[in-house]
Design goal:
Layout lengths: L6 H12 L9 H14 L3 E3 L5 E6 L4 E7 L4 E7 L5 E6 L11 E5 L5 E8 L9 H4 L9 E5 L6 H6 L7 E4 L4 E3 L2 E4 L2 H19 L8 E6 L15 E7 L2 E2 L11 E6 L7 H14 L3 E5 L7 H7 L5 E9 L6 E4 H15 L4
Parallel strand pairs: 3-12, 3-13, 13-17, 14-17, 15-16
Antiparallel strand pairs: 1-2, 2-12, 4-5, 4-9, 5-8, 6-7, 6-9, 7-8, 10-11, 11-18, 15-17
Length: 347
């Protein structure tokens, strides 16, 4: 039976998650948003010691753990420059060419928040020599964060309370046009919104689950250890994450991808075939795809932590990964459909 996709709820949930800055390691705000949503849905949950949220959807039998991560890539203050600007380093896979000119929020360790912008140095193209124009951006040498404050020296900046180790979050800039979602952090907050929308349907429509199902909202996926802890009894892990598009990829923004392999290793043959069969039987638009050389999901972390599990991954085709990303509502709908159909499959 095809379930109606609550598009409005999914988009609203996505925007709620986006509103909470959550550069990997700074999880408290987005964790609270996630818990608030689960409280509204009446779904019980527990918190992991390092910040994850694990919700229990019920059911009996071998446990399936569905994961979607809430941490984002971003920056951290490496040191304060002599002119009061900030030398920065990436947190997760963020590159200068994908964030120069982006607006940011700098979160200090004592809770202050300052706005700013990622800039090249020199920062004005009209007064930059030709050889410098052609020099690639490098966080260590010629890219900095400029604060929206009247600072002229390192002492001025430090007087604000800004210091090495402070977190820097990029502005998401969400837009929704002709069914296309454009935003930073579609990876993976859009997929988390899809998972929460599916959980809402399970709860409100009393959809029967033929096995126990947990939903795991992880906080450290972007640096590789989001789900290196699993609750007792988990047999299968299904990651819901973006499927990067590209010239050699099958992934399509209007379809759900079933992952065959990523940069670490193939996904479980049997579990992946179950997902393919489920999609075919449910009439869901899907493709199979392989993601190399720089991609992995939270299921990989669980395998590498030594758990005896099967793991697989699905997600909407998404362009411009780790930059200003784009997907389509049809891709989210297809991911939702496959996820719900698989949750009802007897394994």
């Amino acid at each position: 039976m095809e379930r109606i996709f609550d598009e409005a709820y999914c988009l609203k949930t996505f925007e709620r998650l986006l509103a909470a800055d959550s550069t990997t390691g700074q999880y408290e705000a987005v964790q609270q948003v996630c818990c608030d949503i689960l409280d509204e849905l009446g779904i019980s949950y527990t918190l992991t010691h390092k910040g994850g949220v694990i919700a229990d959807l019920g059911g009996k039998g071998n446990t399936l753990c569905v994961t979607a991560h809430l941490d984002d890539i971003g920056l951290m203050v490496r040191h304060v420059n002599a002119d009061g600007t900030l030398n920065v380093c990436p947190v997760g896979g963020l590159y200068p060419f994908y964030c120069v000119t982006e607006n940011v929020r700098v979160h200090t360790r004592d809770g202050k928040v300052y706005t700013g912008c990622v800039c090249r140095t020199p920062n004005s193209i009209h007064v930059t020599e030709e050889e410098l124009r052609a020099t690639p951006g490098d966080f260590r040498k010629n890219v900095c964060v400029v604060l929206d404050e009247n600072v002229k020296s390192a002492a001025d900046t430090r007087a604000l309370g800004v210091e090495t180790g402070d977190m820097i979050a990029l502005e998401p800039r969400f837009a929704y046009v002709n069914g296309y979602l454009k935003s930073r952090f579609i990876d993976d907050k859009a997929c988390a919104a899809v998972l929460l929308t599916a959980m809402k349907a399970v709860r409100e429509e009393k959809i029967p689950l033929l096995r126990r199902v947990l939903a795991y909202f992880a906080m450290f996926e972007e640096i590789g250890h989001g789900t290196t802890y699993l609750p007792e009894g988990v047999k299968d892990v299904l990651a819901v994450d973006i499927a990067p598009t590209g010239p050699d990829q099958n992934s399509d923004e209007r379809k759900v991808s079933i992952f065959a392999k990523d940069s670490r290793f193939p996904y479980h043959w049997g579990m992946t075939n179950e997902l393919r069969k489920t999609a075919t039987e449910a009439g869901i638009a899907y493709v199979m795809d392989i993601f190399t050389p720089h991609y992995g999901t939270d299921g990989d972390g669980s395998v590498m932590a030594g758990y005896d599990i099967r793991h697989a991954a699905i997600g909407p085709g998404t362009a411009n990964s780790h930059g200003y990303e784009r997907t389509h509502i049809e891709g989210l709908k297809a991911t939702y459909g496959l996820l719900l159909a698989y949750l009802q499959r007897r394994i």
